[in-house]
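2024-03-11 09:14:02 INFO receiving multi-entity request
2024-03-11 09:14:02 INFO entity count = two
2024-03-11 09:14:03 INFO echoing inputs for audit
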Amino acid sequence: MRKVYHKILKIAGNVITVEADNVAYNELAEVRTSRGVSLAQVIRLQDSTVSLQVFAGSRGISTDDEVRFLGREMTVSATENLLGRIFNGRGLPRDGRVALDENPIEIGGPSVNPAKRVIPRKMIRTNIPMIDVFNTLVESQKLPIFSVAGEPYNELLARIALQAEVDIIVLGGMGLKYDDYLSFRDTLEKAGALSRSVLFIHTASDPTVECLMVPDMSLAVAEKFALDGKRVLVLLTDMTNFADAMKEIAITMEQIPSNRGYPGDLYSQLASRYEKAVDFDGAGSITILAVTTMPGDDVTHPIPDNTGYITEGQFYLKNGRIEPFGSLSRLKQQVNAATRGDHRAIMDAMIRLYADYRGTLEKQSMGFSMSAWDKKLLRYGVKFEERMMDLSVNIPLEKALDLGWQTLRECFEPSEVGIKTEIIKEYWDKAK
Amino acid sequence: MAEKLGRVVGVNGNMLTVEFDRSVIQNEVAFVVTGDEKLKSEVIRIRGNRADMQVFESTNKLKVGDRVEFTGELLSVELGPGLLKQVYDGLQNPLNLLAEHSGFFLKRGVYLNALDENSQWQFTATAKPGDKLRAGDAIGSVPEGLFTHLIFLPFAWNGEWEVTEIVSDGTYQLTAPLATVRNTETAETRKVTMVQRWPIKIPIGAYREKILPRNPMITQIRAIDSFFPVALGGTFCTPGPFGAGKTVLQHAISQHAETDVVIIAACGERAGEVVEILREFPHLPDPRTGKTLIDRSIIICNTSSMPVAAREASVYTAVTLAEYYRQMGLNVLLLADSTSRWAQALREMSGRLEEIPGEEAFPAYLESLIAAFYERAGLVELNNGKLASVTIGGSVSPAGGNFEEPVTQATLKVVGAFLGLSRERSDARRYPAIHPLDSWSKYPSIVDADKLATARGVLRRGSEVNQMMKVIGEEGTNIDDYVIYLKSEFLDYTYLQQNTFDAVDGACCRERQNKLFDKICSVLAGGFAFGGKDEARSYFSELRQLFLDWNYIAADKPEYAAQEKAIDAKITEKLIHA
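2024-03-11 09:21:47 INFO inference complete, emitting structure
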């Protein structure tokens, strides 16, 4: 029988401190208040005092409320029965069906031995030219969508999830608007994908601390399936809420903040989640697509900044389009040599010319006269935006490459595009 | 001696507070016992009878009262034959063996020997009984792949030692005693084996003196070798925002650099990038030796999700191994990616220790630690008169891509070359994105200094004209200025930019760089007659195309000379004076 403690020494923010012994770091406890029972987790041990973060928040906790340590860490039930189910940030059912407790596994497990990873080589086709042609998504990649509030990032996430060929989709929602949660659920259901999905949903109205568990639970489940040989796609939206919840706890614990109030270990904390993306040597894979909303559209804000250093590229979603500048898939080199001989050449040349087009636009807006070259660029830019950048375009990679050649041919001479002659010879006239 | 013990009294993240009753040493290694696991940790601060320790593992499930066993030894690595080709974590655990031992995941509390105790080596003695040796003098050697691996009198042994016995040439086990030596002052006798231990945070100092680095370390990257060269024994840093190509650049350097040994420290970065090296190096041929790249490499890999304290140790582990191979008379290149993650590890610990924070919460001693790290590079004259070097290249990941931040600034103070990567260039796909105007190097270039000055002048003037054109427009720019702008763009496209992923263009040797640079300089210095801006633009874009194609042709192909002729013809077409 575990001991029950009745004396809470300190309540600050969502952290309570009690005097207790034989408590393990990261252990779970139940706090029983007049409002109900909440889970709490040990976050610091100092001599005989124990500090816990209370998931439901500290509001309404009385100093003589009951704290009972459970002698175990946070677990999640990992079985096939998870599929088609929806849970909240504490791992309890949100869909009104029975709770699951068989085969519990600990969350936030150790990191994968790099020697057991393989080089990712499988392209994930999305039929979005800005992704397939310019920033190819690769199985086991970790990639965030950098965006601002109001952009259709959740729609983009859902679209990629449904078009990608994966076995299992795990959705981790953090601070998700209730409407967004419902539309995710309905989209998955309508496409018939809910039966191969697991949803961990923390909505904006739930206690903040609860969202801290969502990535770990989602990834622990994903890891379980991946070890069974499944290809798993994990969607995390929105990681900014997760980082903000960490900040809140860190400040409450009087940690010295490093940058704009965020804890010094923000990088390591985010990395330990994103690094769960893996292609196992001899088992399945985990691909992570996350959303990071940038406060004030500022990419140098600590959250997108640290994220960018961890992930293997990023998609910038701006004005409903994936921006060619700044968007990057670091793994594209692993796959785009094997797609088609002209893939890399088209990818580089079109972006370089589009950069020139942006320069010309600037000149134009300042009222300078346009040279013959500028006029070519202006024609090109409009076509590029319409044929490649528009998110409504839904064509396979090969079609998109052909369209690329067609666009170049309509606007330029072969010597103007900076592609090596050999490739020009092969493709320039072919795509007519 | 009785075991030195302590007990845990506080747990905060990966920091423990431990109460001890006897003595402890600063930076001493201790093991925390929890259940049947023993977790490695290091003392980082002592106050009264309490020590703060960083744990190199997850601190899950630790309790107040858990037992702590002190070892009396500083954090050390094993040095001996068999280090090459290995993949270690920050504490020198061999990752391949760990995978065999515990499977997919890095189970905590598992520590394996860095070197295989049972391995056999063909020993050739060079010392004779009666020889008087000092620390760092060789007693003999074993062959290790490409190299003759010297066996030293351990670096930590003070004073003069006389060889009293030495084994005859033959095959011996790694841990077998090879020689017996007697201290000439104290008469203490010790046995020398192939393995010795050395504390990683202390530089190996068994050499005569440091020498000013002069000779270039060829990287086969044009922008580096010609414009911002690095010397053997020098230091350089590559700061850049994310996505600017730091890692791709480091990989290119690691593959093509003309040094004997390359040590790659993947410190707090993505596991995926290390996997590329792990899986590809065993298959990539090294044109200099005819073997594969892995034969000359050691990889230290403490990726971002691995424990943060071990990340702090990983750069020291790497530099210690580099110094060890330097002692054999070799030129060693250490690439650390990224030193910012190492600095962040320091910041995390400093925060937990509740030290008064410096700028951006980095500890106040950050600068001196960075300086001390880079100062371990250098060209040295060894005790036997041979020259050998450690070259250090560190990538820096400044927050927000802003070079004003503390890690970049502290690094710039101590390095000899600064290869600043710019977002602007990488957005425009101008790789390598080394900024040609902001970067600098204090080392001599491989190309002619006067021509280099001319080329730099063209780049600077071209950039000015470009700025000016943004204000007054192309039509307001006179044709001479416009041609300078075109020349600077031409130089950028045909020389500074280089396609790392192309087998030919990706590696441009010294001779080829000189040849190409001379040819380009003849264009830069030449006067041309153009009827108008459009004519000038199309001339330069055609010329550019010829050069680009030339860069992609291997020098031993017949097309190479043909292309050169085509280029010469194109140049003379419009040239009015050279």
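2024-03-11 09:21:48 INFO post-check: Chain A touches chain B through 83 residues (CB under 8 Å).
2024-03-11 09:21:48 INFO post-check: The longest helix of chain A spans residues 343-365.
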